[in-house]
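Lecture 7 notes. Example A: sequence first, then its structure tokens.
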Amino acid sequence: MSDVVVVDYGAGNTRSVRAALTHLGVSSVVSSDPTKISESELVILPGVGSARSAMDHLESTGAAQALRNRFEKGAPILGICLGMQLAWNTATKTAASTALVCCPARFIC
């Protein structure tokens, strides 16, 4: 099993994140599998992309609920740029969009 799951939402800077982890000697896998997300020691929700399309992908794969469950348990998640914005109530980049709704705030980019 990898040390870190880098969440795949169909876009994002997953290659850059994995390259940084490899440089640090940390094993990682890119996945939207809810079981891998739930069981990993650390999850990174990378940046770059559209909040709406990212959430559509996360919801369709079950990854969104796995991430919500991690937030509720206090399990570590590192959000980078868009990844962090998705954790809040709304992440508005182009139009109103859904988010993971784990923390009360609103971002407008």
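Example B, a different protein, same format:
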Amino acid sequence: MTSTEKMLARKDGRVGTMIFNNPERHNAVSFDMWQAAARVLDDFAKDDDVRVVVVTGAGGKAFVSGADISKFADERATARAVERYNIAVERIYSSIYTFPKPTIAAIQGYCVGGGLGLAVTCDLRFCTQGSRFFVACSQARSRLRLRRPAALHQHDRPEPHQGHLLLGPPVRCRRGPSDGGSSAASCRRASWRRSSKTMPAPSPTTPR
């Protein structure tokens, strides 16, 4: 297995699960964690027994809360270091977006900044009621770049709610009217991407 202390990989039958394990910092991600995530995804892609990949965060309070600001002095002190970090992040975004198997973001709690980008690149997103989505840029405006995952530029048009996510208050996930009373809500992507992945397109009865 390719697990590290901060990035956990689990295989349960046909399901591979990648867990961002930094709960004391709401699963904020360091450069080493992004590199470890690349190794986990590579292992899942090569394992024929893994048919679907779930991406999630540890601790129950956050999915991923973006970059670990406590690591900035070591990992993003120079322009070259920032570019190195951004390349590592884009590598994960692109890997998940083009992954040869279905990917699911299992979101509980905060999904912030880079975590929002991570969730967008998955094929499906499922979140608990009360999960919150936003880009937190006020605390580190001069050291963070607001950018869409590069893998999405060619495929999706800008959505009208992007300005709200970037500049407005947090978006809170609420129970859908057609979810049968379930405590979970399904967050759909802007447009279904048909591909060679072994997952059917959502049916008309899928909760929106």
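Note on Example B: The first strand starts at residue 7 and ends at 12. The helical segments are 31-46, 72-75, 79-97, 114-121, 162-167.
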